[in-house]
Amino acid sequence: MKTREIVVTLIALLAIGATSFFAYRYEQRRDMAGMCPFCDRMVHPVTAYRLKVNGHEVAACCPRCGMHAQMNQERGKPEAAWATDVNTGESVAAESATYVEGGDVQYCAHGDQAVAREPHGVSVREYDRCLPTLAAFKTPQEAETYQQQHGGRVLNYTQALASVQEQ
Ligand SMILES: [Zn+2]
Question: Are residues 62 and 88 in the same domain?
Fold first, then answer.
């Protein structure tokens, strides 16, 4: 083989190696982070809302998305639900968590643009099952602190479910 051919072969092999390495890494990250089965968004570890359905757990991207699934029994009737405390990442029984709705942090819709609609030219968002944002907290005090910083309203579990049902 001529030197040039050897070099070309080596470069090709390196390219194949690099491609499969990054593809593998990507798959691994996808697995670790997980995708929400209800809306196909990435599940952020700090906002995950887990449901136990038919004996196994599914993780929704956020409390609002998970509560929609819960009420509409999108994967069957949930036996239990857990929210994640935004501050600590700790798992909390959904019924005992406190929620802040509509704060200025959008965990799920990050990067989405408002959609302009003709003819009025008014920018409105399309329906989004994750909005308005529901953030979960272990204690009402933490929820209130968050609300003071980010706005929105503090809701208990029953109020949060009722709100999700409305919109
Ligand atoms: Zn989701």
Answer: yes
- Residue 122's pLDDT band (boundaries 50, 70, 90)? low
Residues 41 and 22 in one domain: no
Report the SS3 class of residue 2.
coil
2 plus 55 within the same structural domain: no
Q: How far is the CA of 36 from the centre of ligand 1 (A)?
A: 5
Residue-wise pLDDT for 82-105, tens only, equals: 999 999 999 999 999 999 999 988
* Domain coverage including residue 8: 1-33
Closest listed residue to residue 72, CA positions, set 166, 165, 142: 165
Q: Is the same domain home to 1 and 77?
A: no
The rounded distance, in Å, linking the Cα atoms of 92 and 49 is 9
Ligand 1 centre distance from Cα of residue 60 (Å): 5
Q: Is the pLDDT of residue 12 over 90?
A: no
Q: Which residues pair with 49 in a beta bridge?
A: 60
Q: How far is the CA of 25 from the centre of ligand 1 (A)?
A: 23
pLDDT > 80? residue 10: no
Please give the distance, rounded to the nearest whole angstrom, from the Cα atom of residue 144 to the centre of ligand 1: 25
116 CA distance to ligand 1 middle (Å): 24
State the total domains in the chain.
2
